[in-house]
Amino acid sequence: MIDQNKDKLPTNNSSPGSPSPGSPSPGGPSPGGPSPGGPSPGGFPVLVMAGGMPSNPDATTNALSTVFQDFAKPTVAYIGTANGDSRPFFMMMKHLLSKAGAGKVELVRLAKAKVDVSAAKLMLDKADVIFFSGGEVEDGIIWLKRHELIEYLHELYTSGKRFIGVSAGTIMLGSHWVHWDVEGDDDTSSLFDCLGIVPLLFDTHGESEDWVELKAALKLLGHGSKGYALPSGCAVYADAVGNLTNLSKEPIVYANNNGLIQVLDQPGIIPG
Asked: pTM of the full predicted structure?
């Protein structure tokens, strides 16, 4: 059975349903290019992290601090749609964000049917950094679509807002993910669009399952597509045109070669 839940903290029992699959285009630009020190075409590079290392929280805080060092005490807007706005999850991540140098950390409650969208937008607009937490990728995207926040988030990103994702939040910031009508049965799988802030396909801390979900996505995307497997503890900067700069550990890059999913020997990721 494929475990689609990228994290293991409790969520609420509400679920908004399943999205219609998007119309993805295969692959993404080859990595390489500018450093994460300044804005790239479209906005500042996004910090995407695998998570999956509860025994080594310093790996997470060290990566987060590379964003927060650009501010005195940044205000962070926390998006927890992937975990149903789980309070325990929020408190755990708030502790790590604060330890890394964040000032005020605010939960933007969006994982429910009735939401004050104007108030949520105001919180997002006032924040220095928007943080996308882990959980269930599909639920995370559905709530954002339901409240019609996808375009607004793109506007914030292109205006210079700093974005961070961890675990499922990293996948959400990428291009696509997989929906299964029957869990674990790839014959029932289809793709849905994620936020597309970064035009790349990501998976996180899936090494114990040999990246089975990423490989399923690549099969659906077809020949020439690429996917970036971030093992536990991995952190990279990714920009709006698909350039990657490594911070800790190195992603494994998979490609679909005429239906055969293979590891690329020379992925071209810029070392940190």
From this structure: 0.85
